[in-house]
Amino acid sequence: MRNWILPEYISDVLPSEARQIEAMRRNLLDLFARYGYELVQPPLVEYVESLFTQDDRALDLKTFKLVDELTGRQMGLRADITPQVARIDAHLLNRQGVARLCYAGSVVTTRPDGILATREPRQIGAEIYGVAGIAADVEIVELMVESLSLAGVTDLRLEIGHLGLFNALADAAGLRGELREQVFVALQQKDSPGLRELTADLSAEAAAGLLALASCYGDGGVMAEARAALPALPAVTAALDTLESLQQALAVRGIEIGFDLSELHSSYYHTGLVFNAYTPGFANAVARGGRYDSVGEKFGRSRPATGFSLDVRALTQLPFPSVKPGILAPAGDAPELVAAIRALRQQGETVIVDLGVQADEVAYDRKLQQAGDQWQVISLTMG
């Protein structure tokens, strides 16, 4: 057996890519801090019932399970960090006002999200708890766009939807159980023939509304089409008003969005606005977010919340950045040499001690050498 082979959709991260991932992670966390977000670090594994905020079968299927040998209880490897952050906000921090929290860490899933995706994303995200107003959603979308720009992604297409539209239409039509899920999936796939078949036994108004939802996508003109095509239910009107308010607020900040009213996230904890960011060259969304106002209910404290996340590794691009050349220093135990090497490293320089074996890649352009009783750094002309 070739014991060096990794499982499918799992891979090592080699030095060049690892440098880019780590630099991106640090830069993003620094950006979040400038917006006032505090870093939390939930554990990679915990009791499985804590890893889901609702009866979320989609997330349940993606979660690896194991038995805790200390207690005999079932544990899970996290497949999403948001439920863990919701637990921290609801149970540990227990703040009365707004809480801005961010995180960065690996998640592990039983199956990839796409054919080119990994089962071990490096997830990083930011979330706002305690604010129900549109201002929190505006801040999250703005931060998501700035995060992607910082990661080198500038050619973006933002698609915004609202789960309240589907929920209002499905409730009015009396959709329940498996049929509701089938309609949900058909809408996500914009499968109009499938929708017609699934809604054949509904009232004409309900069927027409759900079919219209699948075709409402594009620029700002979609809102007028949606208001004309969808039934004037209070929840539908409120959702459309929220979408238009978000569009106007983001336009002031120079952020253009498109609408996709059948853009529905597969995880059941989202409750309102949902948004995806796409860019050429990537098969899947490069960032996702939305509102999940009941996310903390399972932990005893239901708070309004909104946030976004992205996979840092998915954003790495070729060519990977080269490492900054360092300084080659001789090996030795002379106190002056040891002190000189330490001083250079404290100044932020990379000092590579010559161990007598030629490195595969030359990673230095200067050399530390002794001149009299002092150690000096001199430039090298590399061949």
Could you explain the architecture of this structure?
The protein has 383 residues and is of the alpha+beta class. It folds into three domains: 7-156 and 279-322, 2-Layer Sandwich (BirA Bifunctional Protein, domain 2), CATH 3.30.930.10; 163-253, no CATH class; 326-379, no CATH class. The chain is 35% helix and 21% strand. The protein is built from eleven helices and 16 strands. It has helices at 15-34, 57-61, 82-93, 134-150, 163-173, 177-188, 192-198, 204-215, 222-229, 234-252, 335-346; strands at residues 38-39, 45-47, 64-67, 74-77, 99-106, 122-129, 157-162, 217-218, 258-260, 273-278, 287-291, 305-311, 326-330, 351-354, 364-371, 374-379. It has a nine-stranded mixed beta sheet with strand order 1-5-6-12-11-10-7-9-8, sandwiched between helices. The chain has a four-stranded mixed beta sheet with strand order 14-13-15-16, covered by helices on one side. A hairpin with a 2-residue loop joins β15 and β16. The radius of gyration is 26 Å and the shape is elongated. The two termini are 43 Å apart. The model has no long low-confidence stretch (mean pLDDT 89).
Determine Rg (CA atoms, Å).
26 Å
Number of domains: 3
In this structure, how is the largest beta sheet organized? 9 strands, mixed
Count of helix runs: 11
